[in-house]
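Appendix B, record 7
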Amino acid sequence: MSDEPRHAVARWRRELPTDRRTTGPAWFAAHRDGLLAALRDAVAEPEAAAALFADVWPALPDDVDETWARDLLAVGADLAAALPTSLLLAAGFRRAAEALRARGSLRLAAVAGMRELAIHRLRDDDPDATAGALHDLAATYRAEGRMHKVVGCADEVLELCLLHDDRPGTARALAHLGALMVEVGRPDSAVTYLARADKVFEELPRPTTATTVERAECLTLLGRALWLTGDRAVAHRRFNRALALLIGADDEAAQRVRDLVAELEADRDP
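Structure tokens (predicted):
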């Protein structure tokens, strides 16, 4: 990259509007074509272009059209070919997904999320970052109503935790899958996941107050799933175990369990 394009990238980064709702719309109306051209020119020096790509998305006004956003994502794809493991570019794709999701451009948000995830998969050095990318992508899929894709992301998080022998993470991932199974109307599968999660929580060598509360939440979900299957006697035992863990540790959570049981009982009554 010559000095001129490099300086142009630095100038564009300095001049991006700081308030996308007030100054942003007018600024982008006047500069959108030049900004996109500068990014395309900068692809030959991808590190500089990646920094501008990451900075652009939070500054976009609400009325940026999908065609322009798609073109901007295409520049990101070119950058990913040159910088396949760039954390800065991954952050840019995360910001892109967040901005596009907020505007309802869910298909493009999913594309951005998948590109972020691809970078973390290729790096394969930070399971927490990969899990974070999966959770963010799942948020887009949920907004699209594609619950099978949300479950797929949760499955991959579980695989990551198992691969890296992350026992607390495994328990949380199993509990999350159980909650999703309840949500999609598969209580039998929910019971399987939540029972596994409870066992992992129980076997943690040094449980903290936080993991104890998480286990109680898992038991509460397990009780709800059992209730939905019709196994109400066992469900009550799981609710009571959750209460035993919560009383004195989180009294508000304990009250929520009581409220849930009362609600379930009320719904059962004719």
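Remarks on this record: Residues 209-229 form the longest helix (21 residues). The mean pLDDT is 94.
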